[in-house]
Structures are given as structure tokens and as C-alpha cells.
Amino acid sequence: VNNAGVGHVGPVESISVEEMKRIFETNFFGVVRMVQAVLPEMKRRRSGHIVVISSVMGLQGIVFNDVYAASKFAVEGFCESLAVQLLQFNVFISMIEPGPVNTDFELKLMEEVSRSEFPGADPVTVGYFKDVYLPASQEIFSTLGQSPTAVAE
Fold this sequence. Notes:
Layout: H1 17-27, H2 29-45, E1 48-53, H3 66-86, E2 91-96, H4 104-114, H5 123-144, H6 148-152
Parallel strand pairs: 1-2
Protein name: RDH8 dehydrogenase
GO molecular function, one term: all-trans-retinol dehydrogenase (NAD+) activity
Keywords: Oxidoreductase
């Protein structure tokens, strides 16, 4: 089971390429490294099941989540492609793609970005992000967010 992940929200012009690489390093390459570690033995014994926790944002991008969504789209493409070739080895890949989940992870992320300045982003975009996106996102998580237990079930 792979559940490693980092979140990121904000205007894309304020995200450095180094930060984007860090997000992909965890969200995408973390999955790749885990699969590479377990796959040879699963193929050898011709049995196994890999479970990858992804995100609904690997299926549908959402405003101000572009880099995070891109990392999850990469995970989706990787796992979907790999799943087909692994059938001959009786190895399966399942992807869990939860939507909003109420955890401290999301709460800390929202608190952090609400205090950020977003250098490089224009005032109109920053205003929209802080005045429209953040309150709407917090409302969605508080009213529609699942508990971690519900996701696990």
C-alpha cells in the first residue's frame, strides 16, 4: 500500500520549478520507487496486489491545484498502464481516488496557504485565490469531506 503524498495549492506562477519537482518526487516518483521495490518478487511468485492511494484530482483537475493534479494524473497513467501488463503475472493494482477528506493534512495546508504571499502572482489572481477559492474549499471540506475511516471502508 502506497499512501505517501504532499499537497499544494496556489497560483502556478508563484510555484518554483524546484517546488514542483519536490511534489512530483513524493507523489509520483514515490509510487514508482515503491512499485519497483515490490514488483520483482510479486512477478516471481506470480501473485500480488498493489494498492495506491491517489486522488480524485488524478481524474479531474481543479483550479489552483494544477501541479498537485498533474502529479496525480501521472500516478493514474503509470498505474493504469502497468496494470495491463501485470495481468499475465497475476499481479493487480488498485487505485483509491478519494475526494475531499477531513484530516489535519488538509487543515494545515489551508492554514499555511492562507498566510502566504504568492510572489510572482498578480493581485487579481491572489485576490480570487484568497477571497473565493479558499473559503469555497474550506466549505467543501467541512460539508462534503469524508472521514479517513469512510475512505478506508
